[in-house]
Amino acid sequence: MSGAEAEPVDLPKPARKAGLLEKFHIVRGHLGADTGVFVTAQYVGEGRLDKHTLYPALTLLLQQHRALSTQVHDAGTEQPFYVSLKIVDLSRIVRFYDADSKQLSEVAESYLLDQIEYATDTPLWRLGVFPDNRVIIHYDHSIGDGQSGLAFHRSLLTALNSTSPSQDEPSSVVPIPESLELQPTVEKATDVSLSFFKICQEIFNAFAPIRWRKAGSSWTGEEVTRQETMFTSTRLWSLPPEQADSLLKICRLHECTITSFLHTATVMVFSTLLRDSPKRYKYLASDIPISLRRFTKAPADVFCDHVSAGYFFSPITRYPPELVDDFEALAKRFPWEDAARTTSDLRKKVPKCRQEVGTLNLLFGRYQPFFRGKIGKKRHGTFELSNVGPFPFDKSDNEAGRKWKVGEMFFGQCDALLGATIKLDDVLAQFFVDHFRSLVEAILKQAQ
Q1: Cross-referenced InterPro entries, in alphabetical order (predicted)?
Q2: Cα dihedral sign, 337-342-343-344
Q3: Could you tell me if 38 and 136 are in contact, meaning their C-beta atoms sit under 8 angstroms apart?
Q4: Whether 440 contacts 447, CB under 8 Å
Q5: What is the pLDDT of residues 235-260, one digit of tens each?
Q6: How many CB atoms lie within 10 A of CB 140?
Q7: Distance CA 251, CA 439 (A)
């Protein structure tokens, strides 16, 4: 007697294997140590962003960007891979909030606490929409770097300006063209091989006692917690456009970039906060992400995970106690020469930063033991400073006559379990933000 024939299963279409950096982010997410990135944007235009306006624009995006219709399978193995979804149901990934975005930081925190699950029939991103037309996208780090958030908002802005609101109830189910493909991996798009010096450096860092290195005398806060938690606190702060322009002019005057200025200001604020720390701490360990798109030729308006980083050890300056809360005095003593030097050092690191991705080959696929080995150990850094670049990319994005424009934007990410200290301590974060804001305001006031 023959049994009934099984119904055919409509499995998602395999796309490609995850690359070195993508595996790094996938495994970290699988272990609950990375919940992704968020980028918010305030849209200004005709009416309200509801389903009738937003769904037609999102449909256009989904039919152009494969990363927005992608999932990950075998995340817990040595070789995860991407699959292509045939449809995307917007009603399952887009949420419309009832209240305006006054509580945006709390909403951002909720997104960073929410792990986007792998191996499901929904893609690796979520969208929140507020009545005041603030839009927040939260996406898994394996499909996009920080600049991918800007790419999403630019693509959405273009789509809103090229589509019309639906007169009928819009369909939430979007069919995806099979011809769409993911961007290539970093190692496919550019050379990430290691120089002999880099190999020797990595061997030294792996086996030499930490006290022999600057990392051993760097203050990086508490050890990596043994408790599996992704609790993180978010602080959002922005400068008015006129102050941002003034700060940019001040930086140009002192031959430094906004990024190096912010890095130097962060070091200065941390130095004031750590004035009473043990003398064995001499440095602050930091990293600045560097986009690899200039090497991989990935356009600025696509989703991809093409990023590396430059690493720095900055001396802790023991400021006199009377200067700790005297921001006017600190502004006068601001080390602009350090900011200029950081600008120069960062530019020198750019040509070699591709090798940082190549170092992942030295794990020989053993990502999980690598991450688990960090539990209970010293953190790798004090802080991370990300500059995802300007928005809009060109003036045409916000030119006069467009139905929609983009105003204020915020960026954030979560790496609370294994990441730098500033992402971990709630009290320290608030104290840091307050002092950082006061220092920048004092520098702007001094320049008037």
Answers
A1: Alcohol_O-acetyltransferase, Atf2/Sli1-like, CAT-like_dom_sf
A2: positive
A3: yes
A4: no
A5: 788 888 899 899 999 999 999 999 99
A6: 27
A7: 15
Three-class SS of 276-337: CCCCCCCEEEEEEEEECHHHHCCCCCCCCCCEEEEEEEEECCCCCHHHCCCHHHHHHCCCHH
Strands 283-291 and 87-89: unpaired
d(CA 306, CA 85) in angstroms, rounded, equals 22
User: Is the separation of the CB atoms in 404 and 160 below 8 Å?
Assistant: yes
- Two tokens at 421? 């200290």
At a CB cut-off of 8 Å and minimum separation 6, what does 89 contact?
Answer: 122, 172, 173, 174
Paired strand residues for 73: 81
Q: Please give the Cα distance from 25 to 215 (Å, whole number).
A: 23
Q: What is the C-alpha separation between 204 and 53, in angstroms, rounded? A: 56
Q: Which two tokens stand for residue 90?
A: 């917007």
CA 402 to chain centre: 29
Q: What does the pLDDT look like over 155-214, one tens digit per residue?
A: 999 999 998 888 888 999 999 999 999 999 999 999 999 999 999 999 998 888 888 899
The predicted pLDDT at position 4 comes to: 40
SS3 of 164-209: the string is: CCCCCCCCCEEECCCCCCCCCCHHHHCCCCCCHHHHHHHHHHHHCC
Q: Which of 151, 221, 159 is nearest to 425 (CA)?
A: 221
What pLDDT sits at residue 414? 66
- Whole-model pTM: value is 0.89
CA 379 to CA 384: how far, in whole Å?
Answer: 12
